[in-house]
Task: structure prediction
Amino acid sequence: MSEPSCKSPRTPAWLSWFIGRLGYGLLTAWVISLVVFIATQALPSDPARVILGPDAPLESILTLQHQLGLDQPILWQYLRWFGSALSGDLGESLDSNAPVSDILWGRLGYTLVLLTGVILVVVPAALALGVALALRRDSRLDRWSLSLLIFLKATPGFLLAIGLVLLFSMPHMDWLPAVSILDPDQSLLRQLKFLVLPVLALSLTALPYLTRMVRAAMIEALDSDYVVAARLRGIPYRRIVWGHTLPNALVPAIQGVALTLRTLIGGAVLAEVIFSYPGIGTALNAAIQMRDLPMIQAIVLVITLAVVLINLLADLLTVLLTPKLRTARRVTMIQRNRRGITPWWRRSRGDA
Amino acid sequence: MNEPQIRNGALVTALVIAFALLGPWLAPQGSTDMVGPVYGAPTGSAWLGYDFLGHDVLSRLLNGGLSVLWMSVAAASIALAIGSTLGLLAGLSRRRLDQLITWSADVSLAFPDLILVLLIVSMLGRAPWLIVLTVSIAFIPGVIRLARASAVAVAGQEFVEAAQMMGYSRRRILFKEILPNILTPLLVHFGNMLTWGVGMLSGLSFLGYGVAPPTADWGLMINENQAGLLVQPWAVLAPAILIGVFAYGTNILAEGIGRRSARMGDKQP
Result:
């Protein structure tokens, strides 16, 4: 009776951390929207001139600037853009005069399918390979695989993609299309063969980092005391590996996947252009070449928000999967000085 | 230097740099002279054949390395200088400034590298120094985080506390105690940045945002000759291989340095 908090359903300990983290993510997202807007709008590129062409008379440009609201203060323009972006209206594309959000959602779906495919390929492959290499540490297989992974890691992604095109567009290997010209009327699931090469190209760029991360985490887990203890108790090695060390090695892999997704989104732009895949990357490339400002703003905004969201989810999963962090009242991911001596650079002026 | 990876990496990197530096003198033809048939096959006088306008591929190859290489080295160096300064500042200053710098780095990390570079280059134009600056801006947040993390880790160790208690000046602690100890991870990161930089710069040229067309440039060559991939693969393959080899060399070098420092760390108790 003296502790009512035990009777009522307690809020999980990590919730306060999550609320703070969510606020941090929202703040970041807002600053990003500001940066994107200023970077595209305040820089010397005049949408009115883009629409009317270089030879348009000054008067009509001024009129159009007035119509588009471009002659108003930049802060007001930002507020208007931000307000309508919040309600889902991202303006009209200067190039095709269609609402940006309509074009964007279609393209976004294709890119999401592509990235999902890559994750579905890379994560199991990296896990299997990483665990296998960690178990055969320093063997010949391990060393050769690591060399191959270093080679894959070093090769720029678009070169890998071109290499794949070269390999599969040869006359004797025409069972995979080198260019993904999708039929928009058909479901993507019926056109899976167009996905194979883009997914493969992106998977190869993402594989080395994740595999090496899993391998390192597995080696560290296999060297720990609890594995020795489990072996001394006679628990089968297979069970130790899959039941005890792998779950521990998975936690750093979550952050690895988040980081991989961030680089993948950048790499996807190049891969989509190479394979003419109708995703968000080709849309960005086309928008930049057409100087289609609303489109560029919307795409960059969506991509950066996706990255913020991915990081948020990765942090949440990390906390939920680590019992020590999950039950802690205060989650600090920063290491403290072991002996608690405050270095001079942390001291405030008063302490001396 | 007993680490074979460092030796091989340095050798490969130096070879590609020598190729790019000496190339302009060795080129048999001018890089913009149309001397042969469009997509002409390799012959005795043109070992790598001709490209989409009939330029000699070998001559363009010899002329086209310098731009990618100096730009990636410059971008990585600028990023290293600014990023490590900011990172050290963040790691070793009071909390307010630390939070501000770390948070700014976090915000800019939300932009995928290539997207940020594309955004800036498309808005401001494609002058070479601008591209270099842009790529280095994309790299800076990573350097800041690395430098800050390493500095915080080193600053918590006994020898720094000892130096602090012995009353050494801040400048001395920073330059004699902390900086030498975070140099290795920064150097490894520098090698990685060279790898990424070459990939990003050639990718930019490939997308058509890099060096302007008539100039010879490895990334641009890949873009220009992509249509003739099946007729005259050498016009695409040769620059692609050189870009790949340079990226591989710098990466091996970085791996080697990292591995050697890990090994030395093992020996020291």
User: Anything to note?
Assistant: Chain B touches chain A through 54 residues (CB under 8 Å). DSSP finds ten helices and no strands in chain B.
